[in-house]
# Entry
Amino acid sequence: MIKDIQASNGQVRVLLSGRIYVEVATTIREKLFPYIDQGYKNFLIQVSEVDYIDSSGLGVLVALQKKAVQNGGGVSIQGLHGHVKELFELTRLTRVFNIQ
Amino acid sequence: MTDIEVKFKGYEGYRLVRKWIGETIKKFLPADYAGIEVALNEAINNAIKHGNEDGREKWVTFRLKLVDNKRVIIRVKDEGNGFRQDQGGEGIPCLNKDSGRGIFIMRHFADRIYYNKQGNEVMLVKNNSLDPASLRKKLITQGGAI
# Structure
C-alpha cells in the first residue's frame, strides 16, 4: 500500500509498505502520475517496508520513471532488500532507477 | 499426494484466495515458497488479464499438487483461446517497457514450466530443496558429494 506521500521542493517522497500486487500498482499510478502533471519531476520511493512486488508493481515504477525522465527528472528507489531487491536485480531494473 | 483445486473469477476473486494460496505454498515448500509464490502470481495475473481479457465472469482454475513432499506442481488455466509460446519470455525483458516481465520471472523461479497445446494452461514445477534427493542432485551438480 501507499503509506505516505510528501511533495515539496519539486520532489515527491513516497513510502510504500506491505505487498505490491496489481491493485496497489493501479493505486500508485492513480496517486503519483498527477504529480507529473503538476510539474514534479523527481520521485523518491522508499521500499524498506515492502516485502513483495510483482511485475505490475515493477511496471508502474518504470512508467513513472519514463515520465519523470521526459521532464528532466527521475525516480530513486531507497531501501531495496530481500526478495524485492532480488526481483529488481533479476529484471535489471537496478540499471534503470537511481538506487540508494 | 495432496491435490487442491480452486476456481475464481477476476482479480476480485483472486484477492479472496490469494493469501490462502500463499500460506499453502509456504506450508508445502518452507524453504522455496517465496520465488514460486511470485511465479504463480504472475501466471494468475496473465490468466486474468491476457487469457481471460480481464473478463470478470471468466474462470481461472488454480490447481496445486504436492507430490511425495518432493515437488509442487501448479497449474493455472484460463478460459481464453490460448497463448503462443513464441510470444515472449525469452531473455531479459526490455528495460524501458512497462510490461512483459511476467513470463521471464516465472521461468526464473520455477524449476520447469510447460504450456498445454492450446496455450491456455501453464504448469509450474518447483522441487522441494529440503528433499534429500533434490539436495543430493544439487550438490552433485555443483561438484560436491554426500
Notes: The beta strands of chain B are 2-9, 59-67, 71-77, 112-115, 121-127. The longest strand of chain B covers residues 59-67.
